[in-house]
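Notes from hallway chat w/ T.B., transcribed later so I don't forget. T.B. wanted the structure written out for a chain they're using in a teaching module, and asked if we could keep both sequence and structure tokens in one place. Agreed to drop them here.
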Amino acid sequence: MADAALSIEGIRKCFGRSVALDAVSFEVPRGSVFGLLGPNGAGKTTLFSIVASFLRADAGSIRVLGVDVRHISELQGRLGILPQDAVFQRNVPILDQLTFFRVLDGQPRAAAEAEARAALEKVGIGAYAKRGVHALSHGMVKRLGVAQAFLGAPEVILLDEPTSGLDPQNARQIRDLIVELQAGGRTTTVISSHNLLEIQEICDHVAILDRGRLVTCGSVKAITAGGRRLEVTFGRPLADAVRTALAALDVVHAVEQRGPLRYAITLAEVAGSGGDADDDAAVARVLQTALDHGATPRAWKEGHSLEEFFLQVTGKRSGEPVDAG
């Protein structure tokens, strides 16, 4: 792909007899927010480490912006990295640490400090600029990591589990930050995560690894388009009478509650049906039946979720361990 930000070709990596990555090949489009998914031990962090040149592959090649990562110095200032367990100096002011990173990239100190201050303000911890990392909460340290990764507006950014260990509110804030900093489409952001809903929400492309092998790669829209499913969020929980009426429709196979207000409705295969027009008609019947019985749909989407697809192709949930390294 001529416009690929990352080109990964035939990557293999072993640790002793354990095969962490086995002939992995895919490309990451420029300007995309790309999700890298897989169960624990599937090889995600190993692949990130090879892209960042922390590890060397046993076979294959990786090019970032056309540059072989074996010559990682040529990507100085163009590639930003947030490791899963990023470590900062505890007692050195965080402003000084970010400034130092930019000086290493060749920026004059005054300009580097101005950039660092702006980055800390953007992620909401500007008031702590002169404090050490020991003064920051876990959520703030994650914000600091995001600020460091995006510092200097690199063209490609790797974020390994950026919301790991955060409560839902802080995780949401980090996701919002990533989307905001990504705005404009100049940057390509690659995110490794166990949170499938998170990836589906903010990523436009995804690759799934399982036991060191690539299972699938493509746009989130294409991957979740299949499957005759409808996910509907209502204004209040459905009464039994509404669920009964929906389940009685010949276009409905099953109705399952997936949250306080969210329901997954599996559409039935109806003889003689087929094509988008019939699918649209089936969805319209479901929504109208709900309205007729006093239930108000607030939002809906067609197709299976990324989690459902993940379970289908890996046979396990995203946090379950596997044997590969």
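Follow-up for T.B.: The CA atoms of residues 137 and 320 lie 28 Å apart. Might be a good example for the class.
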